[in-house]
Amino acid sequence: MNYNEPDHIRMLRETLQKFVEKEMPRELAREWDQTNEYPAEVFAKLAELGVTGMVMGEEYDGSGRDIQATMVIIEELSKRSMAVAVPYIMCTCYAGMNLAECGSDEQKATLLPRVATGDLLFAYGLTEPDVGADLASVRTTVVRDGDELVINGSKRFCSGAEICDYIYTLACSDKEGPRYGNLSFVMIPPTTPGVTIERIATMGMHGAATTDVTFSNVRVPLNALMGGEAGWNNGWKMLAGPGLDVEKLEVAAIAVGVAAAAVEDAWEYSQERQQFGKPICTYQSIRHKLSDMQTKLHAARLMMYHAADLVQSGEPAGVETSMTKMFTTETAKELALECQTIMGAYGYVKEFDCERYVREAIVLPIFGGSTAIHLNNISNWMGLPKK
Ligand SMILES: Cc1cc2nc3c(=O)[nH]c(=O)nc-3n(C[C@H](O)[C@H](O)[C@H](O)COP(=O)(O)OP(=O)(O)OC[C@H]3O[C@@H](n4cnc5c(N)ncnc54)[C@H](O)[C@@H]3O)c2cc1C
Known about the structure:
The protein has three domains: 7-120, Orthogonal Bundle (Butyryl-Coa Dehydrogenase, subunit A, domain 1), CATH 1.10.540.10; 124-233, Butyryl-CoA Dehydrogenase, subunit A, domain 2, CATH 2.40.110.10; 243-381, Butyryl-CoA Dehydrogenase, subunit A, domain 3, CATH 1.20.140.10. The chain is built from twelve helices and eleven strands. It has helices spanning 7-23, 26-35, 40-48, 67-78, 82-102, 105-116, 235-239, 243-272, 284-313, 318-343, 354-363, 371-381; strands spanning 55-56, 64-65, 122-125, 141-145, 148-159, 166-172, 183-188, 195-199, 210-221, 274-275, 278-279. The chain is globular, with a radius of gyration of 21 Å. Residues 123-127, 132-133, 157-159, 202, 205, 210, 363, 366-367, 370, 372-373, 376 line the site of flavin-adenine dinucleotide.
């Protein structure tokens, strides 16, 4: 792998950095975090840059499947705010990737052009009150009634349900069917009668607010079934398909972005803050911390882009993407806390972004497969005997 960014990626990164400085200043990022509101107008401007069609073909107005470019955009947005980074993922990856990988021809033709214009957001309705990591056990049901689907059940921690066009809902479509062969994905507009959405107060990841969603005899047309009729009972294959590696990388790219922001702020602060008559960056304990942070950030970024390169080339990357998700998110958590240590009391107050980085970083090892689940997968997939 060539570790130098190709010209088109370097230019894209510069474009994003300029966009973030102009449209996403720190004061606005703090406001979105405090109000837990989604800045739709900023997202619309981002979409005008033509960056939402990154994982789909030109026949649907996309720009081809460029995983590395997608991760650059997520990284740059995440350095400043989840309130734009998460909706970007909801559009480009949740909607774009799933439709491109799993949609019927009709679904692709009608919905993917809306991804390219930033006009289609999916929220993930996977987790339930009693179902976390063990997603094959979801209890939400979908049954067919003529030309309609009827959905009943509850989803928990559904981020962005209020702002999405469809809640991408994993449901049990055959209660008697075999495990992994009895699930389907349904696209449910949040405004459909019978859908109730209530906010959950979370520490961070504000903007695309996290919610509880209840489905009570919700009816949608049959074409809301992902993949069309062929998608019936094929939900697990869709969940565990090629999109899964990209999903792990999305969280890793957020982690690299948050970690980079934390390192940058700590680096700057250490030069400004004077104690005992000199900047704290002159003390060895602070210098070592910052050197360690830069090294770990470098390692996390290399790992993420290496895994993105593997996924782009179509090579098997389940192990590498799990390692990357686990390492980058644990690193982001560590670096955000180190930033707080360097900033002392100021790292604990809301006027400084460090406080937000800590809250954002803490969630990253939890979702997208927890650290423990990825550690299970790495040794299992690398063939370590269990007995
Ligand atoms: C802010 C936020 C936003 C979220 N957004 C979404 C969203 O948009 N859509 C969505 O569907 N979900 C979302 N989630 C939910 C997230 O995906 C789940 O938290 C995650 O799947 C894990 O489920 P759980 O937290 O219930 O943990 P559990 O699965 O109950 O696990 C609890 C603990 O046990 C460990 N554990 C579980 N099973 C094993 C095992 N086999 N081996 C070893 N350890 C194990 C876990 O690592 C964890 O430490 C969000 C969560 C948060 C906090």
